[in-house]
Amino acid sequence: MTSWQFRAKESTGLQRHQALQAGLAGMVAAKIERETKGERTRRRIMAEALTMIDEIGIEAISQDAVARKVGITQSALRHHFPTRENMFNAIFDHVFSGFYRSAEQVLLEPGYEPRKRLMKLCALHLGYAMSESDRVALQCFAHYLYNPDLLSRQSSWYHWIAGHYAALLGAIRPDLDEATRNGRALAILTMSIGAWITLGQSRPSWPALPGQEAKTALLAAIEHLIDN
Fold first, then answer.
1. What are 84-90's contacts with CB under 8 Å, separation 24+?
2. Measured between alpha carbons, how far is 88 from 123 in angstroms, rounded to an integer?
3. Separation CA 168–CA 208 (nearest Å)
4. Can you tell me the mean pLDDT for 106-135?
5. Residue 11 DSSP SS3
6. pTM of the prediction?
7. Where are the alpha helices (DSSP H) in 33-113?
8. Residue 19 and residue 147: Cα distance in Å, rounded?
9. Is the dihedral of CA 209, 215, 216, 219 positive or negative?
């Protein structure tokens, strides 16, 4: 099971913590291994292609153009990514796995009571949408819509993060029933994903809420969902 396929389960807080610890330990162990020449080349291909996606868009990118940017032959690129689809799939998985790992770290970080952990997780999600390339993110969303396997993995990630939102809401507000917790978790997720469209880097600032004021306003709305 990949990290994108990891689904939130109805379990105790300890079980969640243990599952996350196991996943994080695996990632750390993988990073310790020495990077090979082939892995370096693969990383360079993905980095150059990602820059091109941001600058000119996915439809304008060919494998030949990426190979020239990297300084390798097209056959060398195809050794790592036989098709454009393979290349884009790997790039977009890598982009969203980065946020997944950051979210895991917030969930595992000791010393936070549930409300503070939930707000830190929400701030991370909103901050990611406001600081990373919305051009890349929105093209990724569109790319996934035409690939059922990728769409399933993306949906699994949404279920995973919403499950943690709901679990934290339950710890903060034990008076809320399951349906209410899940509904509010979905509302938080929807606000966070919507930030790619309304607050992304390509958008002008909102006149009444410039800069970080927009993020502060959304976090205040999430606090309202928690308290009311």
1. 85/147, 87/45, 87/46, 87/49, 87/63, 88/49, 88/53, 88/58, 88/143, 89/147, 89/150, 90/46
2. 28
3. 31
4. 93
5. coil
6. 0.78
7. 37-56, 63-70, 74-80, 84-108
8. 28
9. positive
Greatest Cα pair distance, the chain, in angstroms, is 62
pLDDT tens digits, 170-194: 999 999 999 999 999 999 999 999 9
**Model pLDDT for residues 68-99, shown as the tens digit of each residue:** 999 999 999 999 999 999 999 999 888 888 88
Is 156 in a helix, a strand, or coil? helix
How far, in Å, CA of 97 to CA of 18, rounded?
A: 20
Question: Are 53 and 139 in contact, with CB atoms under 8 Å apart?
Answer: yes
User: How far apart, in whole angstroms, are the C-alpha atoms of residue 91 and residue 87?
Assistant: 6
Q: In whole angstroms, what is the distance from residue 139 CA to residue 49 CA?
A: 13
Query: What single-letter DSSP state applies at residue 201?
Result: T
Give buried/exposed letters for 139-166 (b at 16+ CB in 10 A, else e): bbeebbeeeeebeebbebbeebbbbbbb
The position carrying tokens 């913590």 is 17
